[in-house]
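Blinded run. Sample ID left blank on purpose so nobody reads anything into the name before looking at the predicted structure. Input follows.
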Amino acid sequence: MNIYDKIRSAIKNQKMIAAIHNNEYFEGCPHVLGSKFDTTHSLFCKSCKSAMNQWACIPIEELADVKIIEKNYTCIAYSSPKITQHIDHIDYILHFDVDL
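Blinded prediction complete.
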């Protein structure tokens, strides 16, 4: 499975990703997969420990040793109007199942 497919599967199954980014270990919850400036990016929640989530839009070509890890999402859903600030074309986006 390539990096794109791993991230898409993680979004679909609401699982976290572990990878190497900029020579550092990284864990995050991917929420969106798409392109920006004609390069495939994923929008990740990097820190899910408070209401102030830390977000990162990372070109997937910068990720190495990508693994889906058995940790469920703990992030608050991303505000959809702001997604276009990070992703120009959305291929896949997280949809939380919410009972209203």
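Unblinding after everyone has recorded impressions. Helices lie at 3-13, 80-83.
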